[in-house]
Input
Amino acid sequence: MDNNIRAQKIKLLVFDVDGVLTNNQIIFGQDGEAMKVFHSQDGLGMAAACRIGLKTAIITGRESEMVRRRCSELKVSDIRQGSMDKTVHLKELADKYRLTFDEVGYVGDDLNDLAVLKQVGLACAVANAVPEVKAIAHYTASREGGRGAVREIIELVLKAQGKWDALVEMYSNPGMIETRQ
Output
């Protein structure tokens, strides 16, 4: 099936964090909190997706206050942290929104994303994903995780759904849309 057709069906786009929303580096502060660096274009893309009606969610194996805060800023619909089995959380999200897996997209980068990627309608990998993830992905971004890959995938979905031009128009009108990214 063509990626454009797959993307047209997506109502929920789910992201891993480390290696997808970040560049895979984990830096621990003195208090033990893992610090993360997020890409601002990814952030604006996620906020814009929410604004235009595409639901977004996070499923990650780590627990992080920074992830919670960033997702709150961007109006991410759901955050599932500390996930030992991402497929369980994927099913919960699909059930919550009454979606089939064909209506869900997932973006991953490493082995712990494989089972989820095999279930969704649009399986996406970042450019620096491991070969096993790229092998099953329907779409591999040209950008790396934490360096604009999320934005690229959001644009793919919104363009396939015919929503991109309306979003650009919203941002073209002063004062019409929040610009936090």
In short: The longest helix spans residues 40-51. The chain is about 40% helix and 15% strand.
